[in-house]
Amino acid sequence: MPEPSIHFPDLMPVLADLVNDLIALIPEDGSRIGNDQIRAALEREAGEPLSDDVIEEAKNRAVAMGAAEKARGPGGGLKAPGVAPPPRAAGASTGERTRRGNGAGTPAPQAAIAPGTTAASVLTGELRNQIDRIWDAFWSGGIANPLEVLEQLTYLLFIRRLDELESLEERRSQRSGQPMRRRIFPEGSDAQGRPWSELRWSRFKELGDPASMFQVVGERVFPFLRELGGEESAYTTHMRDARFTIPTPALLTKVVELLDAVPMEDRDTKGDIYEYMLGKLATAGTNGQFRTPRHIIELMVAMTEPTPRDVMVDPACGTCGFPVAVGEYLREHHPEVLSDPELREHFNHGLFHGFDFDTTMLRIGAMNMLLHGVENPDVSYRDSLSEDSASEENKYTLILANPPFAGSLDYESTSARLQRVVKTKKTELLFMALFLQLLRPGGRAAVIVPDGVLFGSSKAHKELRRTLVEDHFLEGVISLPGGVFKPYSGVSTAILLFTKTGRGGTDQVWFYDMTADGWSLDDKRNPLLPLAKLGPNPKEALEEGDHEKNNLPDCLSRWKQRKESERQCERSAQSFCVPKDEIASQGYDLSLNRYKELVHEEVEHRPPLEILAELRQIEQEILQGIEELEGMLR
Prior knowledge:
The chain is of the alpha/beta class. Helices cover 42% and strands 9% of the residues.
């Protein structure tokens, strides 16, 4: 008799998604996917632990639909219906095949990345070598601009992703007996009689002839990408300007072969691989201004504590480092964001927003979001300082940004609404006015500004600081080390943390003097501690002396105490609070050194007469030596 089904009325929509995900996991060659693998995969998709009953019900439904049959053997699981399992590999008896209860053949789980470190720390050496080989292939093939390399890799990753989505939908359709819900590649052939299926990654990579692949990709795949508008997503929008610049069939063939060997099944791995590629863009020199250090981003995210219902924006998003970090924070601290249908819809379609006026950066940023599991973020073209943002006013609850500070703009090219807030040409002040305009009342922000914003003496500088302190709620000022943005900039910067109120609220402002961020402050920016001890939330506890090399955990810890114990700190400490009235009396100067008390160590010097007596003694010894030398020469 069939096993009785368990009914979960409240979980029906979620369970249907789990069943679809489960069906797509079942190998087509008749091999088995074990119960442990099923649980791990479904919980990764759901974003939270699942009960035994829910997983068993998903398995029963897949079997009842005829899409799977229960497998025999240790670990149970499912297999494709009516397909004989493949012969066991020779190494299976020696522990190469994973068995339940036998840890000898189970690979050690990949350690999660320590917040604040680079993605390179969690990628295996083989994966890093694979990416390095792809990069070297472009270099030797004639493309030396790192931004162009990343752009072409972004296109190829997108093409591969489209094929994966099509294959997943085909498998769901075949197993469930239902028609495909969405078809990316048309059926049949084009007007010239060429099959549309040739545009798929899995097809053109098997053509065998480099010249044929080069022709298909250049003349058919890229035009198809530019016209792909069936779904108005950030990815299809930005891919409309895609240009194929790989110069030779040999280079394309080599890159496709190398990229095809890189595993992209796991969301975390996909994201870390792309972060590693972005790291190459940063270390390349001239284009590094697009990258804010990941550990600084994650500190700012942790301090603002995003929630699943936030609406965040980065008005100068670049490669989308801040939105990606917010997504990862929510997955870790609010797993319900992916299990609750309403929150998941908001996560994929309404939570993330980013603007930039560099179309290349928008494409790279959109792909970065996709590979980190966000389906449709709002990553759009906008010159944030020039365009009228009336439609965006009071829209966002969270701003995280490190906007470019390019000096001055012409009045004619600047938004009139911003000029009414602060009359200036300085981009750093205009961006601050923009942040206040975009936030809705109660919205909070953590933004990086050059030090000049903190103490500039112009009327615009003072008025902006007065507005932050008197009209809104300025909570914190973090002075960053001077070398944080090396090798491409040595400018001194700070993080401002504030909440838009329109009715004031500033009582005391918390200051923190960060002297070390875990990395050397020279052009090389080498880690000063093991990677597990870096970032604002290190995986390993810091030992005595480690704080002098990584202040981020201490900064985050003290921030959480800013309304309690931090109020009692002396001005000579690394962090302290300053009353609003004192800041107002100083012309709203927000530079830390204005309020920090320097402790001078008392140094005792010997009495002058004692020093003179010693000098006289030394002089007598010298004269005596000279007389002895003269006697020897006579």
